[in-house]
Amino acid sequence: MKPPRLTRTGDAAPPGIVHFGPGAFFRAHLAPYTDEALQAAGGDWGIVAVSLKSPTARDQLAPQGGVYTSVALAADGMAPKVISAITDVLVAPEDPDAVIDVLADPAIRIVSLTITEKGYGYDPATGGLDPAHPDIAHDLSNPNFPTSAIGFIVAGLEVRRQSDTPPFAVLSCDNLPSNGALTRAVTLDFARRVSPDIADWIAAEVSFPSTMVDRITPATTDANRAALVDLTGTMDSAAVFHEPFRQWVIEDDFPTGRPEWEAAGAQLVRNVEAHELMKLRCLNGTHSALAYLGYLAGYETIADTVANPNFARFCEVLWREEITPTVPKPEGEDLSAYCATLMRRYRDPAIRHRTWQIAMDGSQKLPQRLLGTIADTLAMGRVPHGLCLAVAGWMRYVGAVDEDGQPIDVRDPMAERLQAAGTVEALLAIREIFSENLVVQSDFRDGVRAAYRALERDGARATVRAFVAA
Ligand code: CS2
């Protein structure tokens, strides 16, 4: 007999948030925090989720009335929690006007984003908008029929401006440095190209708080879903499975209000930058390093990779010698304790986070995860050989052939260009990834070249072993 489907019981909170990008991370992070804030303190903070591309999230959530289970995976079993904060799910390409209408609704006071790095149409070389990004280019030519989050936000704000409705706050929850300021820069750049009036209004009126978000959330598998049916007796197509740990640091700048997220343990602070830098460099930086080198070494998950003592030691050397010296200590944090906790999280055997998943979109991730740290270490007069090895690992990975001669399914908006590049020199010449200031430094180039040669000659396992033995 088929198990019954999870359904909503009780009323949904009236909506106050529109969220772009209702994937697994949002369902494991912002939505549970908001759900708990609603339960603790109430408020009209239901979430209208908007998919920008595929109908998958809607097809999973709508038959369940928007409710789903957020499951913390622990060594001793699963801890499920039903989340009811999502009140509706829209699929933007099916009805863009419906999205603009909800963005224009005065009840909406926050628009949040988990659209991944490539969703911002950001050009790291200029620090502004990339007008050649396909969705951005489309939206600049058709500002009333947007396809991108930035296009929708500007279209929604324009309706609010014309109807004298106060703006919503725009809350980026992606792993980008100074994500609030970055979102503001691309939004203003986009708006300026549409009309100076809307750009001036946004500059004067709209707040873009920065955030640091953290919870390891591997892609959901059929085995996860089946285990949940065994535990609860109900079928949930929209369930997400994640580590027990979570952290959210938010710049407290919401002129028209916000849920009481602190009731759920979020940290509302004046300045998030130091927390973001710590997380991006210590967690995401080593995640990417372990993903490329671990994949090449034949490991399926991060936990498998750090179960090899040489890779665990490699990661610890990166933290101690190359990463934390570049990270100012955020208030209330202890960097070595933070990294020790990270290693415990990586080792967690209940979390099967695939190296292949983290390896995706490297062209969008490398600058803020690895290259900024490399530049800062070089400026201190030292050569970060471990991080150069990580970059060389990425270069081998995007070559799309593994150490056994098998093809690698490289997922990256620049995948074709990266594979066609073919050499270290050609990859270093890609200015969207490697800044001029970095590649002119011969210590960096030599470090990457030497590491790449070692990977070609000896493979990832032996190269990492030799690195930690040196
Ligand atoms: C990971 C992140 O996939 C990736 O690139 O590094 O998703 C990471 O798991 C989260 O940022 C953890 O908070």
UniProtKB/TrEMBL annotation:
<dbReference type="InterPro" id="IPR050988">
    <property type="entry name" value="Mannitol_DH/Oxidoreductase"/>
</dbReference>
<dbReference type="Pfam" id="PF08125">
    <property type="entry name" value="Mannitol_dh_C"/>
</dbReference>
<dbReference type="InterPro" id="IPR023027">
    <property type="entry name" value="Mannitol_DH_CS"/>
</dbReference>
<dbReference type="InterPro" id="IPR000669">
    <property type="entry name" value="Mannitol_DH"/>
</dbReference>
<feature type="domain" description="Mannitol dehydrogenase C-terminal">
    <location>
        <begin position="271"/>
        <end position="455"/>
    </location>
</feature>
<dbReference type="InterPro" id="IPR013118">
    <property type="entry name" value="Mannitol_DH_C"/>
</dbReference>
<dbReference type="InterPro" id="IPR008927">
    <property type="entry name" value="6-PGluconate_DH-like_C_sf"/>
</dbReference>
<dbReference type="InterPro" id="IPR036291">
    <property type="entry name" value="NAD(P)-bd_dom_sf"/>
</dbReference>
<dbReference type="Pfam" id="PF01232">
    <property type="entry name" value="Mannitol_dh"/>
</dbReference>
<dbReference type="InterPro" id="IPR013131">
    <property type="entry name" value="Mannitol_DH_N"/>
</dbReference>
<protein>
    <submittedName>
        <fullName>Mannitol dehydrogenase family protein</fullName>
    </submittedName>
</protein>
<dbReference type="GO" id="GO:0019594">
    <property type="term" value="P:mannitol metabolic process"/>
</dbReference>
<dbReference type="InterPro" id="IPR013328">
    <property type="entry name" value="6PGD_dom2"/>
</dbReference>
<keyword id="KW-0520">NAD</keyword>
<feature type="domain" description="Mannitol dehydrogenase N-terminal">
    <location>
        <begin position="16"/>
        <end position="262"/>
    </location>
</feature>
<keyword id="KW-0560">Oxidoreductase</keyword>
<dbReference type="GO" id="GO:0016616">
    <property type="term" value="F:oxidoreductase activity, acting on the CH-OH group of donors, NAD or NADP as acceptor"/>
</dbReference>
